[in-house]
Amino acid sequence: MALTRVKTLGGVVLAAASAAGSAVYKVLFKKVVGEASFGQVSLIFTVIAILNTLLFSPILAALYFSGYETIMWTKLPWPNLLLAAALSLAANLLGNLGVAFTFELFITLGLVLAVPVSAALDIKWYQVKFEGMKLAGIILIVCGFFLVLLPANWPEYITRLLRWVVRSTSRCFLRCCCRRHNPPP
Hints:
single chain; 185 residues; mainly alpha; transmembrane helix; membrane; EamA domain-containing protein
């Protein structure tokens, strides 16, 4: 089966683009703003919300009034949508404002644990099978979160570790070679 014929390819591409955009936003936010206060974070969220409303509302209206996108307002699962919106708002507030209350490490660890726990609940409640692209996606998400947890100078630590391993093994190798060529009396 060709990759372009997979039904979920569009969703996977959108999810990957969304994750990449979110990562770029987080990095730029830290680089430009740095450690922000509650007021600064609230102001930035307000500006983002206003920009989203101004930029995306005309697109939604054009799709709806042109008939390209039809919305059956009575058939929408309103309780599920409201719950998802409330949980998303809570996650964003905790993720962005929670840093002021606790260490960023704890928030990132919570996000790392949320992905496998959600996958386990999907397996138990909905009998979802994680194979192929779903499994690769979960593994990549968890690896990405672990990369975020690494300190900024992590290549230096790895270089030190590699040098220590090389020195230790070369000393051990030299001791073994010296014993073979010069046996004790």
